[in-house]
Structure formats: structure tokens, C-alpha cells
Amino acid sequence: MSPVVQGMLTIIIGVGGCVGYFYFSNIILDKVIFPAKGPQAGRNINRANQVRPWLFLFPAMFALGLYLAYPVVGSFWRSLFDRSGANFIGLGNYFDLFNESTFRTAVFNNLLWVLFVPAAATFFGLLIAQLTDRLSWGNIAKSLIFMPMAISFVGASLIWRFVYSANPDIGIINAIRDSMGLVALDPLQIRFWNNFFLMFILVWIQTGFAMVILSAALRGIPEETIEAAIIDGANPFQVFFKIKVPQIMGTIIVVWTTITILTLKVFDIVYTMTGGNFGTHILPSYMMTYMFRDDGRATAVAFVIMILVLPVMISNIRQARKEMR
Amino acid sequence: MDNIAGQNSSNKFLANLTVFVLVVLWLLPTIGLFVSSFRDRDQISNSGWWQAPMAVDLNFRTRVATDGAREENGVFIIEGNVFADPALASSFPEGTGTVAAFGTRAVAPGEFSAGEVTELRGDGTIVVNSDGSYRIETAEPLDRGPTLYFEARTPPKFTLDNYRTVLFADGMDRAFINTLTVTIPATIIPILIAAFAAYALAWMDFPGRGLLIAAVVGLLVVPLQLALVPLLKLHTEIGIGQSFLGIWLAHTGFGLPLAVYLLRNYMVGLPRDIIESAKVDGATDFQIFVRIILPLSFPALASFAIFQFLWTWNDLLVAKVFLPSGAESQVMTVKIADDLLGSRGGDWGILATAAFVSIAVPLIVFFTMQRYLVRGLLAGSVK
């Protein structure tokens, strides 16, 4: 069966199945198990209403449990076994990893990514959000800067090859060097700094996201606070840094953490630009070198990523619980 | 009330200038890709895309035919025109052009400028004029014509050849269909599942609701990497293996936390009166959901659909792990990253075109549905 037909069938079965499940499970609950008639009608209605939320939740909870919650445990468990999966070796995989210099480089680079990408994307996002606020063509500018959000990491990597290429007839950087009479060099082979060239691709993609959210937050600031500051003689920079930024601090933190989380997961850029060569591995790309080869190591690397994400996860959950009260 | 942009005209100018520079910087790489996708291989390797509208100096070579040689006063003369070579007809369809420089050695194709009379290896002289005509004088008749190298100014040439190759000959058409096949079910199926769950979390009262919401928020940030090994094993054990069904299920699972979170945030904000008066009128939860909540939540549904579409279309990781690696089930991102970058690493025209084909659909979706995308982002992040 061709995948296209299979795809259409899946849509029909998937959507039909969902609708059917919700429809019939409700009918069965109301008509068969707890019918709203007879001597116990009142009690039955209450009981049915206690069960119903779980009917609504069941498919989502099942999928979430299986595809996201179980893997956390499953991956950790697998990481305690060796390559074949038969021998329990405790934390052996983790010790081996920490003894590998590539792994340590990957952890170090990942920390650089986590520090630099959210900071730069938030900075540019805030700058552009503020500057476009009063421009007549602000919306067009924002739309164009937002555009890379739609581009895949693979596509973005290819786009940036036309900037970084060592060939002065293809890469803009080397074309500029060439016109200044400098020798061509491959930016992606300059140790340490090549990480920043890769990071900038992600900054390029994420700035639009930061800009959109921060721009909405800036517009939500009460006008009176700004007017009062101006009447008191504050200059534009004081208005921005002392009045506006403190009021949107909450949003800045949300943007920052969202980009941080994303940064910890993106493997595509390193994979397509350098393949992890020249000291550019980060944890997600490093994990892929073990994927399909050594599941024990691969899951161990994945679990290290999970540990890095954990503080953000806990603070997010705390925040959500605070808001619900 | 004024702020940085607008207090006085010089600040205003500065703001305009800064934004303009940033927009150009942000756009430039993409424009480079777009322009390059219309240039052929020779043009790309001889001049940067920013020179695309200008004529370029390309190197050509031609072999001089000896049969036209004639003898004059003891000197053998060959005359002709480099542009007359039928092998170069595709580059110079009119048979004319401008020679900037020429040479007799492959290592120095532009050694001498046009019109300069130079020594030919052996004994003799050669000159190539800027109109392409050449004259070779030798003392002895040549048994083999020398190879002439020359640099000629060629007008900018834009072609759709790359697109033809990518779309019809390179397997990219297959990859395009595969991407669509992965994306559409993976976008549609999670929406319904998530919408029901979001309704329960937003408008139904039951013990443990707060915990469940917290769990969804927590699952939002679980790295996908954790799921790869255990789930692939699970899929293999239950007989799905690496297949389209597997990737649909995987994308559905991975997309659910965001879907539930976004939709719940939106549904909570719907007016309580409508829902309560429907309940008073005797509507069941199922009816309320289908008749009232679902239509009212359209903006949130649309914004999640766009997110999920962009995410599944652009995904490389899940496709690499959950789909078989053969050509018949490769999606575009995998095709570009693993196939084209490897085997066609030097063919920039094909690479640029393939990349452009793969980002065209998301860009269209992005520009037509930007409103919903922004709304979704705001609902998901600003609370």
C-alpha cells in the first residue's frame, strides 16, 4: 500500500476513531452503565459525571504517558545496561562518558550554547521589539525577522553555508575578506569560535520568537508609568531600562527559559554544518553518534540532557501551580 | 508620550537605520539561497550570488583545428574564432562574445590579456583578440592544434534547470510526498485528542486536576532524545517497527503536551456564562464540547495546527529515527542532510534549490497564517 493511501486511511481512522471513541463512550456511560432513570437516577447522574472527565482525558493521558513519561524511566533503565542490553553495569555508561574527551567537549559546548543563544536571541528580540514599536513599517520589519521561525534547522544550515563557506565565490564572509585582500579561511574550522558561528544560526531563528512575545509585552505596559517617568525628566534610555524592562521581566524570563529548553534539544544544526567535527559536538548531536550503535550510551547521553533540563522543568511546574491558585 | 523611537528626529532616524540594517542582515542569507537556486553550477562556482545580476568572467577552452592552416611566406597561419566552437554553443548561442584574457596552459587560463601577442610553446606566436578571433603563426605546420583557454564575459544567466533536476530527477519529488504524508496525519490527529483533554482540564471538576495540569507543563520540556531508544524498541516489539505508522504515533505523542497546554489556556478564558447556561438548558458535556467549545476555540486550534505542521515538516530527528532510511521513505530534511550534502556536497545550485523547495511550503503557511501563529505563541508563553 502506498504511503499516501496509508496516510489518508490513517487520517480517516484516526479522526473517525477519536470521534467514535468520545461519542460512544459517552453514550455507553450515560445509557448503559449509569442510566439516568429508574430508582437511582440522581446517583447515577452524579456517578457518570465523576467518570466522564477520565473518558475525555484517557486518550491524551495514554499517549502522553507512553510517549513522554515512560521514556524518561525507560531511557534511564536502559542506560544502566551495556551495549547489548543484557548486562547490568550500573552507572558504567556514565563513567565511560565522563572519561571521553569528546563528551566533555560536548557538555562544555552545550553550556556555551545554553548561555549564549538565549541571551543573544532575547537581546536582539528586545532591541527589535522596542525599535519597531513606533515605526511606520514596523510590522513588515517584524514579519521579516520572524520569518526564519518557519525554516527548518536543516534549511537554515544550508542557508548559512552560503555565509560561512570557505570559497570566496560562495561564502559572504570570505568574499568580504577576499575583497580586503585577506586569505580565505573556513570559519567552521576555527576551534572554539566555530561554536559561536553555529550558535548564531539558532539565534537567527529564535530572535523572531523572542521579538514577537516581547513586543506584545511592551505594548501591555501601562502608559501612565511611562508618562510619569517622562514628566519626571527621564531620558529614553532610562525609560527603557528603568521603567519598561523591569515591568516585562516576567516575560523576559519566560522567553529566556523557552529558548534555553529548545537550545538543549537542537541537534540538526551541528549535524548538518560540521557533523560534530572541529570540536563542535553538543550533547544532542553527540547522542546521535551512538544512536543505532550503542543504545546504552545513547540513553545515557539523553539522560544527561534530561538532568540539564530538570531545573527549568521544576521552575515551570512551580510557576504553573502558582498561577492556578 | 514618546520613547526611544520617536523622541526627536535624530533618534527616529537612528531607529529606522538600526531596524533597516537588522532586517537586511536577517534577510540576506535567505536571499542568497533563493538567488543561488536559479544559477547554474558554473556561475555559482565563479562568482558570488551577490554578483548574479552582473556579467561574470567564466573560463572556457577550445581546441584549435589545424585543417584551416595556410602558408604565407614560409609562415604557417591558423585563423579562427573561439566563439565558433560548436562545443561552446550553449554558452554563446549567438557565436559572439568578449574575450577578457586568454592563455595556453590549463593552470593559467587568463595569463595574457586580449590582443597581446605571445609566444606559443615551441616556436611561434599566438594572439586572441577581444572579439574572439585568434591568429596563430608558426614556422612549422602543426600536426595537433593547441588547446586555447580563455576568459569570456558571460551575461548573467538564470535558469530553472536546478528546479527541474530537483523536482523530477533527484528523488526530491518522492521526498516531498513523503514529507506531506508524514505531516498531515501527524498534524490532524493530535488536535482532537488534545481538545477533549483540554476541555476536561479546563471546565470539568475532578480530583487530581491540578496535578495533571502540572504534569502536562512538566512534559512540555522533556527532551525528545529520551524517547528515541525506548520507543523504537517498543515499536519494534509490537510490530510497527520503523514505518509511517510509527512516526505518526510518535509525532502525535510528542505534540500533545503543547496541544493540551495551549488549548487548555485558551478554553479557560472562554466566558463561563455560555457554558453554564448551556448546562442549565440540559446540554451534556459532550454536546457543550462539540457545539460550543470547539467552534469558539478555532483560533487556538488553528495556531496549534500551524505549530505542529511547521514542527513535523521541519523535523529531522524523529524522521531519522522512526522512518526507515531507504530512499522510498526519506523525508526532505533527511534527504538534504544525509543524501544531498554528502553526495552533492559541491553542487551548490542543487543544494540551494532543494533547500528552497523544502522551505517553500512552511514559508507560505507562515506568511498566510502569521496572525494565528503569533496568537498561539502569546497564549503559550505569556501568562
Under CATH, the topology of the largest domain in chain A is which? MetI-like fold
Number of strands of chain B: 9
The biggest chain-chain interface is:
A-B, 121 and 123 residues
Tell me the number of structural domains of chain B. 2
Oligomeric state of the chains present here: heterodimer
Task: Estimate the global geometry of chain A from the Cα principal axes.
Answer: globular
Low-confidence spans of chain A: none
End-to-end Cα distance of chain A:
52 Å
**What structural class do the secondary elements of chain B suggest?**
alpha+beta
Q: What CATH first level of the largest domain in chain A would be assigned? A: Mainly Alpha
**Class of the largest domain in chain B, according to the CATH hierarchy?**
Mainly Alpha
Q: Counting H and I runs of at least 4 residues, what is the number of helices of chain B?
A: 14
Order of helices and strands of chain B: HHEEEEEEEEEHHHHHHHHHHHH
* Biggest sheet details of chain A: none
Structure description:
The complex is a heterodimer of chains A (325) and B (383). With 325 residues, chain A is an all-alpha fold. Chain A has two domains: 77 residues, no CATH class; 231 residues, MetI-like (MetI-like fold), CATH 1.10.3720.10. Chain A contains 14 helices and no strands. In chain A, α5 packs across α8. The two termini of chain A are 52 Å apart. The mean pLDDT of chain A is 87. Chain B has 383 residues and is an alpha+beta fold. Chain B folds into two domains: 99 residues, no CATH class; 219 residues, MetI-like (MetI-like fold, Orthogonal Bundle). In chain B, the strands form two sheets. A five-stranded antiparallel sheet of chain B has the order 2-3-8-7-6, with no helix packed on it. Chain B has 14 helices and nine strands.
